[in-house]
Design brief:
Distance between the termini: 114 Å
Order of helices and strands: HEEEEHEHEEEEHEEEHEEEEEHH
Shape: elongated
Number of strands: 17
Structural class: alpha+beta
Strand order of the largest sheet: 4-3-2-1-6-7-8-9-5
Number of domains: 2
Largest sheet: 9 strands, antiparallel
Length: 316
């Protein structure tokens, strides 16, 4: 009888263990089926706020008026919406590769300790959707180590993600000053007038006063006919430079235009007339345009690409 009782007890214990093992296997297999291996499994459309921190620097990006903005205090500044959307798409597309660590000390050795570059995604209700930390480069030079809050592991993933985790303003602000997209072939007139001191120490100065027009034959010439024959490709290249001009930062809301510019650039694209008014400032140059509500800041290196004298546009 005692032997039979022991057998029944052992059988019951074994049954319990089998049930527990089965439940564990079901939970594991269910997680495996639902774990896509992607960095971010959520819906990018639900993300309303992106926070990036790295080595004491930070930036906050928010959905605003149908697009994205950089929060400067409470002030929303125009953000590079394409770049923000590319970050969210990348998080959804990139996969977790090899598991590189599964303990706190292991993650720390991969540069994933407290203070590592951190990305947070937050939804419209203020709920935290996702927190990712980025650590060191992998030994192959093509991957970086990442960890996700709530998971003990650290993985390697494509290093391209690292380019989106720098909170520097210049990467996230919309600093294009050219206006809406246009082709150089659409330009019908270009004017440059004024003077700027580009480098006070070595006396570098730029001065020009000319207006170019494109004739019915599609060729550029100096307005009024007084000037050299022009290299058509050089003029078209200058037009493309003007349309693609970018600043280094935003200076704030544009003024009322009452302040006189030191140098002005005007570009006509049929009936669309665009102007850039450039003034010397304490740090670099301040630029205002007719087609943008913000004023910009740029250094001499940025401006040199569009400060081209008439002699440099002349045909050889």
């Amino acid at each position: 009888m005692r032997v039979q009782r022991r057998i029944r007890a052992l059988a019951a214990t074994l049954a319990i263990l089998l049930v527990a093992l089965a439940a564990t296997w079901v939970a594991w297999s269910s997680r495996e089926r639902h774990d896509s291996g992607r960095l971010f499994d959520g819906d990018p459309a639900r993300v309303a706020r992106v926070e990036i921190e790295d080595r004491g620097r930070s930036i906050v990006l928010v959905r605003h008026a149908g697009t994205w903005a950089v929060l400067d205090g409470a002030l929303p500044l125009p953000a590079r919406a394409v770049r923000v959307e590319a970050l969210l798409a990348g998080l959804s597309a990139l996969r977790r590769l090899e598991v590189a660590a599964s303990t706190e000390s292991g993650r720390a050795r991969l540069g994933l300790a407290e203070g590592a570059a951190t990305l947070r995604l937050i939804d419209l209700d203020g709920a935290l959707l996702f927190v990712l930390r980025s650590g060191d480069l992998g030994s192959d030079g093509r991957s970086i180590f990442v960890s996700i809050e709530g998971r003990p592991e650290a993985w390697s993933t494509d290093r391209d993600l690292a380019s989106y985790l720098d909170p520097a303003r210049r990467y996230w602000l919309e600093l294009a000053m050219g206006g809406s997209p246009a082709r150089a072939e659409e330009a019908t007139a270009l004017g440059v007038s004024g003077a700027l001191v580009l480098d006070g120490e070595n006396g570098e100065r730029f001065a020009a006063d000319y207006r170019l027009k494109r004739g019915p034959d599609g060729r550029w010439s100096v307005d009024g006919g007084r000037g050299p024959a022009l290299d058509q490709d050089r003029v078209d290249s200058l037009v493309r430079m003007v349309l693609g001009l970018e600043a280094d930062d935003l200076a704030g809301k544009a003024g009322d235009g009452a302040r006189e510019a030191d140098l002005s650039i005007s570009l006509e694209l049929g009936s669309d007339v665009r102007a850039w008014r450039i003034r010397e400032a304490a740090e670099g140059f301040e630029i205002e345009t007719d087609h943008h509500p913000w004023s910009f800041v740029a250094d001499a290196a940025r401006l040199r690409s569009v400060l081209v004298g008439l002699d440099a546009l002349a045909a050889d």
